[in-house]
Amino acid sequence: MFRGARFSLAVHRAILVVASALVPYQRRNEWLKEWNAELWYVFDDEERSARAATPFCLGAFRDAGWLRRQSVSKQLDGLAGRQSPILCLAVLAAMTAISLWLAAALPTVAVSAWRKPALAHLLVLSLALLILVSTGRAEAGPPSVGGPLFWPFVGVKLGLLAVIVFFGTFDLGWLVSQSGLQPLASLVGYILAFRWALKDQRRRCPKCLRLLTGPVRIGHPGRTLLEWYGTEFMCTKGHGILHAPELARNSYSVSRWINLDTSWRELFR
Amino acid sequence: MAEAKLTHTATMILQAIEAGYVYGLSVMHATGLPSGSVYPAMRRLEAANLIRSSWESQRLAEAGQRPARKYYKLTAAGKSKLQVAQQRYPLLGGLKPIISQGD
Question: Do B2 and A216 touch (CB under 8 A)?
């Protein structure tokens, strides 16, 4: 190694240690071992090491950040009821309870104020649903193949979200004004909440209501004349496969559910 | 089920690994890509089971007075994906003999 390399190596190893703080704990030791080993070889090449070591180490932050995002993404998939329908409803119920408690606890909005805008809220809610229907975002998935809990699950989700948005305007509206009700905020809140609920429903198995997994891109965006371009999802219980098109076409503009019979169950054990 | 598409960068990395550049640093030198692109891409490829990582023998590394390195190899799925991707990116297929000459 060149003269002064030991000090430079120590400095760059310190950079890697800082970057390693982003790496999930379980993978940190191996990650540091890999990067430190490669750094040694960077310094072993005297011709390149002087100008290459720092950019090399700075790239470690991006690698560490990617590992952290993957770890967080996996944790979020399991949290907040993203897979199980029961946990999804439990999280929404908890958010409803928090919203109700905050609305009652905040001193700036009187309880009597809740009754006054009820009709106005119904109007805003209807308007939000009308906007969703007219923009083509009101599709909840393939109800024709849904199980007996498909529509009740959709109904409970939408009901809980409506309550969250209703009391959320009181929770947050007092920050802006004393009236507690923000019509525009309610409209936006209902549209976003219902849009999320229907999008979430489209990504669930219509039979067991668990989130579909294993997205695989099919086709090519430049070849849609005779071929299909979209994403395929599957139910982990083996109930079926969902084909979601990327492009709206006359013949195939909505998602298509393909039922798998019991002969496929062995693959999903 | 259909196959997921490989990006241009991922194809370059697979091609470099197939040509014998099995270490992260050597893939960087062969492709000209920075470490911030190569290493996350190799993690994604490994997660997709297109490449497989292993550690060198610690005993051999210590005998050579150097640290053991992690090296990568293509899986069977990676080889077939690479062949399909090289048809999609014909310029990369044309670069293959140049990379094989190594440095």
Answer: yes
